[in-house]
Design goal:
CATH class: Alpha Beta
Helix content: 25-40%
Number of helices: 6
Largest sheet: 9 strands, mixed
Strand order of the largest sheet: 3-1-2-4-5-6-7-8-9
Oligomer: single chain
Number of strands: 9
Distance between the termini: 27 Å
Shape: globular
CATH superfamily: Aldolase class I
Radius of gyration: 17 Å
CATH topology: TIM Barrel
CATH architecture: Alpha-Beta Barrel
Order of helices and strands: HEEEHEHEEEHEHEH
Number of domains: 1
Length: 215
């Protein structure tokens, strides 16, 4: 990604994955998907060109407003937390080269998870890949055999068919989740409950962190 405000040296370090636009980082409880309820350190990278209209972190979209941060500083902060797990999220974190960052996390003995739409090529080494496909920019084919978890956001009834299309492509053993979009949760959750009861290959994911009032 080219950030027009950067000097040539800064742009070079961004392209190399040595610095990244860091929106925020914090220690909390994972609120969604397979690892719900487990503590983890979240690293939110700014910048996203997928543009979901219902996105609840739209402030992450513009990478230019987030400070370009040396990855060694990110890893140093994450190393102070006791869970031993980091979740890299966004925005769309795989807009960038994450190989140097994940290498540093691995050297620090930290398990690395990523949450991605799969719209950009994969870079880096991960212990867990949560693929959350979006209609605006569907995942690249390389993600399906690598995804450990498929998490599909359900905003309307048509999204169930969309979910099935992606479930048919992932590897055997990939965990399958349907998650109501937060603003539609009251309407869509009962439909998801009925759907999962009829087809138990699926599980329900809720944004439990929002119910708990934590980041």
């Amino acid at each position: 990604m080219n950030l027009t405000r950067l000097s040539p040296e800064q742009q070079k370090s961004l392209d190399a994955g040595l610095r990244l636009p860091l929106m925020e980082q914090f220690y909390t409880i994972q609120g969604e998907g397979f690892h719900t309820g487990r503590p983890a350190y979240f690293v939110r990278i700014g910048g996203c060109d997928v543009g979901c209209h219902w996105c609840d972190v739209k402030e992450s979209w513009d990478a230019r407003i987030h400070p370009l941060t040396d990855i060694s500083e990110i890893v140093r902060s994450a190393s102070d937390q006791p869970s031993g797990t980091v979740v890299i999220t966004g925005g769309e974190p795989l807009t960038y080269n994450l190989a140097p960052l994940t290498d540093l996390f691995k050297k620090a003995g930290i398990s690395v998870h990523v949450e991605t739409s799969g719209a950009h090529p994969i870079s880096g080494k991960f212990d867990w890949i949560c693929l959350s496909p979006k209609k605006n920019m569907p995942p690249k084919d390389e993600f399906y055999p690598m995804a450990d978890e498929l998490k599909v956001i359900i905003h309307n009834r048509h999204d169930f068919e969309w979910a099935e299309q992606h479930a048919a492509k992932v590897k055997e053993g990939c965990r399958l989740y349907l998650q109501p979009e937060w603003s539609k949760a009251q309407t869509m959750t009962p439909l998801i409950v009925d759907y999962v009861m009829a087809d138990p290959k699926w599980n329900i994911s809720l944004q439990s962190h929002k119910y708990m009032g934590i980041p």
